[in-house]
Input
Amino acid sequence: MLRNYVENVLRNWHQHKWETQGFGMLRTYLPGENEPRLQVWDQRLLVWENSNIHDHPWDFESTIIAGHLFNERYKRVESLNYFGAEKYNEALIVPGPVQEEAPTPHKVWLVRQPLEMYGPGEQYSQTWSELHTTRYSQGTVTLIERKRTRPDGDHASSIWKGDGPWVSARPRPATNAEVQLVVDNALRTWF
Output
């Protein structure tokens, strides 16, 4: 039933307000408690240099409607002395479309956790403080339900490796051409 509902939203995409986000997704908010967010993942929307390891201002549960999603979580550790630890840059940002100055980073040490793989009908959840990055099969469709629980407000950590600067993955309004390209691909591939 949920799959049919989502397919109807995609086939009638012009009735919704869509945004792109630099993680490689097209997204729209649906009616309901905590504004469920429908996401269509497409590498053509990816800002390749973005600082893609992040946490959220909210806990969430994600349902894979179509396609395959790969989630990798990261554990914070005290130093590089911890087995498997790697050094990264971290900055606290305010998510959303507001443009701001580049945040000031500080060093953190993270250890990659086992890669999680999810397919159609499967769900996973995360708390606001869990760091992760998402990969996907082209055209994967997910629905996330969010619950605002972060005690320090509407902030998120953005993390990247190397000496380069922070690169934003902020959302922006999607063009009709972008929406049609991505939605048509998802419908053709999975529906």
Q: What stands out?
A: The first helix runs from residue 2 to 11. The radius of gyration is 17 Å.
